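Supplementary Note 3. Input sequence used for the single-chain structure prediction.
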Amino acid sequence: MQRSSRSKFLLVVTGLVAVGTLAGCASDGQPAATETVTAPAPSPSASASTPQSSEESASAAPSSGSGSSTGSGATGSSAGDRCAASSLAGRIEAGSGGAAGSVIVHLVLENTGSTTCTVQGWPGVSFVGGGTGKQIGAAAVAEKSSPHPTVTLAPGKTAVAPLKIVRAENYSAGDCSPQTPDGFRVYPPGSKESLFVKDTDYQACASADASLLSVQAFVPEGQATS
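The predicted structure, written as discrete structure tokens, is reproduced below.
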């Protein structure tokens, strides 16, 4: 009888110990081993892939208006401004007469604008015709050995460029393909715009191989030597 009671007592104690152990595991929620595991450190490249905020992107980009407040192409009305084709009128005047087989005339540009401007250097000159302004033959050759001062033109004043015209009759009809021009297309020095100078006194050669024109630089009125 005593042995039986003792056995029951031991069974009860053993059961209580087992229940306590199970309760301890449940309260932790995880095995003890998992409590010492730490998360891996983030990759160093992760921060580099993070996109910039809109404020950061805007500060890094150059300003769209940088450098646009000053323009080197702006023009004023000072005496040093180059004469524009729109403020010039051209004409042909008699020159020195030239040598055998050629004639030298004066290409005159007059400042028809309201402000003083300048011309400096050699004009672009060619025959044009057909009523359309189409170039005929080769353009004038610039005589680079001629003086090329800066000519200041007050309103109404003129500059002169001696223009040599070889007579088309010096060439055979086959080499020249003669044609009567309407006049000359003239580009003032440094200009991409031209003006028309009417003159039908000379024959042009449609063949570009027959060079008829050569021109000197502009000089002040009264100083042309040719």
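The helical segments are 2-28, 54-60, 173-176. The radius of gyration is 48 Å.
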